[in-house]
């Protein structure tokens, strides 16, 4: 039972994990651009906290300096007579900005440089400073809190205190070495305290210094870095907003236009092409515009095709219905046979139309899945012509294969193209059927083959009336047919040339109608395909 419950509970956890992982992608692009730039600057701003290491280095340096000064003064005092020590302490304290206090073996204060000479430094009362210093101290405290710095005890100075008030003296006398520490003055600047023995009779020297410059240096470095980071942050935000505007706004325009195209509420909607943009956004806009235009053309073509199909099927269906309705009322056997013949012709035409329509509607999809292979067009044309002659579908119009002047069509690989042999054969079948239907009896049909650079060119020429220049593009439209007079009803669907062009264009070729190249009457339908480049 428990395993069954776990099996049912696992998918929600996985789905929740996927939702958590995918959550950032639901945030707008503008917010993400801002976040990326701000995070980078936030990492830079983190260097403000690392100024604490700079402060520690300064303190360590001052510790060493305080220890050295205390030891030098202690040696000087030890070598000086007792009556001269007070003068020496006052002079050194004034010149080195130190406060020197000498204690005897009983812990009694013997000499204080601040009493022997004017004080070399003064601890500042925070109440007397402007609010900017209060803000600086508040920032110091916040930095210490974030970094987890150990608390610094406050500095208390009792001028009448004895050696017992200074733990540094006790530690120095116990160890025989100089002891250094620091405490915080009222304005949070460090007070460096150094204690060292003077000789071996129990005397001790206490040296203090208000190292205000350490705090000032750290605050100055922090302020400079904060100004740089703040300025960079402001510039980064402005640049991010500008970048987001140049990226997001065009994308939003494209989204709105594509949504309108998808909804189909406005057939005249224009997807912005952004011609002034020469970057990837401009390329995307023009690609989407071209795609929507091609999609609209394809939709219009499908709608037009459906209307044309309905129109083309309506005529034979109307004729068939009329023949069948009249059949019950006609008693004359001859007229009945005539009506039955009309009905059979209409059925054949409907069957032919349905077959052609089905082929035309699926040809694009089939060709998109076809793997092109090398096709020898000369061999294909020869086999097709022989097969048509054997079936006798050319009527009394012989089909001749001619070679273009100056072209060696028999050379190896000269007339090989990449494609689908069956579909290319269908192109030639449709072009030959069209040429034969327009050619007078006995007039030959010429099929020419040539190699022009990197393309293979095949032309089918007839001796018919030719094609007016204004109609040379319309003949490739579906169901557009200018049939010769006297042709049997229902023999052509009007889709042959449209299917042929579709196949040729799917093979990256072109099919067009021109005049004959020899100046005689007739039409020439010519298509070119890229030559096979080998592997």
Strand content: 5-15%
The overall strand count is 12
- Helix/strand structural class: alpha+beta
The largest pleated sheet is described as: 5 strands, antiparallel
Count of domains = 3
Describe the structure.
- The structure is a single chain.
- With 535 residues, the chain is an alpha+beta fold.
- It folds into three domains: 2-47 and 223-256, no CATH class; 49-210, Beta-Lactamase, CATH 3.30.450; 370-535, 2-Layer Sandwich (Heat Shock Protein 90).
- It is 54% helix and 14% strand.
- The chain is built from 13 helices and twelve strands.
- The protein has helices at 2-22, 29-45, 51-78, 85-95, 113-116, 131-147, 167-175, 212-263, 280-327, 333-368, 377-391, 421-438, 496-506, and strands at 99-103, 109-112, 179-184, 190-198, 203-210, 373-376, 399-403, 416-419, 445-452, 455-461, 510-515, 523-530.
- It has a five-stranded antiparallel beta sheet. A five-stranded mixed beta sheet has the order 7-9-10-12-11.
- α3 (51-78) packs antiparallel against α8, α8 (212-263) runs parallel beside α9 (280-327) and α12 packs antiparallel against α13 (496-506).
């Amino acid at each position: 039972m428990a395993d069954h419950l776990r099996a049912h509970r696992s998918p929600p956890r996985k789905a929740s994990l996927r939702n958590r992982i995918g959550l950032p992608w639901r945030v707008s692009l503008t917010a993400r651009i801002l976040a990326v730039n701000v995070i980078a600057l936030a990492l830079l701003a983190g260097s403000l906290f690392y100024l604490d290491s700079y402060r520690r280095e300064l303190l360590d340096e001052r510790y060493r300096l305080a220890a050295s000064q205390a030891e030098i003064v202690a040696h000087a005092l030890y070598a000086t007579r007792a009556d001269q020590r007070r003068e020496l302490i006052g002079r050194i304290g004034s010149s080195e900005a130190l406060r020197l206090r000498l204690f005897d073996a009983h812990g009694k204060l013997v000499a204080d440089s601040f009493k022997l000479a004017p004080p070399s430094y003064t601890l500042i009362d925070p109440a007397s400073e402007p609010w900017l210093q209060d803000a600086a101290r508040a920032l110091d405290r916040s930095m210490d809190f974030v970094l987890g710095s150990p608390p610094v005890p406050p500095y208390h100075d009792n001028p009448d205190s004895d050696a017992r008030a200074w733990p540094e003296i006790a530690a120095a006398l116990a160890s025989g070495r100089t002891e250094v520490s620091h405490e915080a003055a009222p304005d949070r600047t460090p007070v460096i305290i150094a204690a060292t023995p003077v000789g071996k009779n129990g005397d001790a020297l206490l040296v203090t210094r208000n190292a205000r410059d350490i705090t000032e240096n750290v605050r100055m470095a922090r302020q400079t870095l904060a100004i740089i980071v703040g300025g960079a942050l402001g510039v980064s935000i402005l640049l991010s907003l500008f970048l987001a505007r140049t990226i997001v706004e065009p994308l939003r325009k494209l989204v709105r236009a594509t949504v309108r195209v998808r909804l189909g509420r406005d057939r005249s909607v224009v997807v912005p092409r952004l011609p002034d943009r020469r970057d990837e956004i401009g390329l995307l806009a023009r690609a989407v515009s071209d795609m929507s235009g091609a999609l609209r053309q394809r939709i219009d073509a499908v709608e037009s095709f459906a209307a044309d199909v309905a129109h083309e099927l309506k005529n034979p269906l109307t004729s068939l219905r009329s023949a069948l309705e009249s059949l019950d009322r006609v008693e004359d056997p001859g007229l009945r046979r005539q009506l039955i013949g009309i009905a059979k012709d209409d059925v054949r035409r409907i069957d032919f139309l349905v077959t052609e329509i089905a082929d035309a509607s699926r040809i694009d999809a089939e060709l998109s899945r076809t793997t092109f292979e090398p096709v020898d067009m000369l061999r294909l044309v020869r086999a097709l012509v022989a097969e048509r002659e054997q079936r006798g579908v050319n009527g009394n119009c012989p089909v001749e294969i001619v070679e273009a002047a100056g072209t060696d069509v028999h050379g190896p690989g000269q007339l090989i193209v990449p494609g689908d042999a069956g579909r290319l054969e269908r192109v030639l079948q449709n072009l030959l059927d069209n040429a034969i239907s327009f050619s007078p009896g006995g007039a030959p049909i010429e099929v020419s083959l040539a190699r022009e650079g990197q393309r293979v060119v095949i032309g089918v020429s007839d001796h018919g009336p030719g094609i007016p220049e204004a109609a040379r593009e319309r003949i490739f439209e579906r169901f557009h047919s200018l049939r010769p007079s006297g042709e049997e009803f229902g023999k052509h669907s009007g889709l042959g040339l449209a299917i042929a062009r579709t196949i040729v264009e799917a093979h990256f070729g072109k099919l067009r109608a021109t005049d004959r190249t020899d100046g005689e009457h007739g039409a020439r339908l010519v298509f070119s395909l890229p030559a096979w480049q080998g592997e």
